[in-house]
Design a protein that fits this description.
205 residues; alpha/beta; Glycerol-3-phosphate (1)-acyltransferase; seven-stranded mixed β-sheet; globular
Length: 205
């Protein structure tokens, strides 16, 4: 089934690129529309918008950001953008962990969507990537044929710092790295550390 794309999506993607000044790089990772889990560092509310906008349109139309319900449902404009334009999968930070939290994400993967994830679970200060929560591991284990692609977002914490409402015009960069999958005998901790390492390595490329 062809995804239903809001008429404003292309305009919003162009506006996001203009605001963030984002330059995209794909390193050992072809930019094609195969189903994937894009996982990135998290330092700003602009993160998922910048990553979503950096995807070529054929990929973007089938890719759904995973975002915090508490932030994006706070007012009517945010709610409209999240649900109608970005077509986000909204999850609650206060919901109990486990299958209930992952169910809407697993449902989207079953429908053939790609997802944008932030496995740190909360925003960092931009100096280093925090420890990963277990959700990425469980999604990859449940869908072993789907590639997990690390994406390093640079400078977005300075463009829209925590607590600010207006972005500062600075340049940023979105770097897509080589895809990974869980190895046969790899445990949760080992996989999450390997995924975090794959993401951190993109910072210096």
């Amino acid at each position: 089934m062809t995804p239903q794309v809001h008429p404003c999506a292309g305009l919003l993607a162009s506006l996001a690129k203009l605001i963030t000044g984002a330059n995209s790089r794909w390193i050992d990772c072809p930019a094609d529309p195969r189903q994937r889990l894009y996982f990135a560092n998290h330092t700003s509310h602009l993160d998922f918008v910048a990553l979503w906008a950096a995807l070529p349109e054929p990929i973007r139309v089938q890719t759904r950001p995973v975002a915090a319900r508490e932030y994006w449902m706070r007012n009517g404009m945010r709610s409209f953008l999240a649900t109608n334009v970005f077509q986000s999968v909204l999850v609650s930070r206060t919901e109990a962990a486990g299958r209930n939290l992952l169910s809407p994400l697993l449902d989207e993967l079953e429908r053939g969507s790609s997802l944008i994830l932030f496995p740190e679970g909360t925003r960092g200060n931009g100096d280093e990537v925090g420890e990963f929560k277990s959700g990425l591991y469980h999604l990859c284990r449940s869908n072993p044929d789907i590639e997990a692609v690390p994406v390093y977002l640079e400078n977005l914490n300075r463009i829209l710092p925590k607590g600010e409402f207006l972005p500062v015009p600075l340049l940023s960069r979105v770097t897509f790295g080589p895809p990974i999958r869980p190895q046969v005998d790899e445990g949760k901790s080992e996989f999450l550390e390997r995924a975090r390492g794959a993401l951190c390595r993109l910072k210096d490329l």
